[in-house]
Amino acid sequence: MKVLDFVKLSPAQNMTILVLSEVSRSEQPSVASDLMRSDRIGAEQVGFIELSDTAESRLQMMGGEFCGNATASLAAYLCATTKKQDLRLEVSGTDSPVSCHVDNKNGEYNVTVDMPLPLKIDEMLMPKLSSSKLTFVSFPGITHIIMENEPP
């Protein structure tokens, strides 16, 4: 059984685990799955912190996608540990490092992340799912669906 160092953060209530221990890319999917399956940890996503030659750090998401919340989490974590407020991070799902700015106000971290542009944005009607149009915003590895004016 391998012991992992990790931190758990809650950006916008999107429970995120950042694994600090070195984990090979081939092992990351199974490690992420095990961490998310654990009832004691309770997380929605897992990212792996890696070394970078071109940025402060690299974030590799378990599915290879870009995640703004996980990127903000890494920026806040690095600010807490290094006191740096302006960071460039290499992130999976992007072609070049993204810039982040962190404001630490009494332990509450507000992070601004320069988001990559989506690959495409599509709108369509799907009457069985929604009475209004759905917007699909596609990034490498992930598509977000925006439903407006729908009850939770």
Q: Could you describe the 3D structure shown?
A:
The protein is α+β, with helices and mostly antiparallel strands and 152 residues long. 16% of the residues lie in helices and 37% in strands. It has two helices and ten strands. Strands 1-2-3-4-5-6-7 form a seven-stranded mixed beta sheet, with helices on both faces.
Number of strands: 10
Strand content range: 35-45%
Q: SSE order in H/E notation?
A: EEHEEHEEEEEE
Please list the strands of the largest sheet in the order they lie side by side.
1-2-3-4-5-6-7
Structural class, by secondary structure, is alpha+beta
Helical proportion? 10-25%
What is the approximate shape?
Answer: globular
The overall average pLDDT, rounded, is: 90
Summarize the biggest pleated sheet: 7 strands, mixed
Low-pLDDT residue spans: none
Report the C-alpha radius of gyration, rounded: 17 Å
Query: How far apart are the termini?
Result: 40 Å
Count of individual helical segments:
2
Can you describe this structure in just a few lines?
By secondary structure, this protein is of the alpha+beta class.
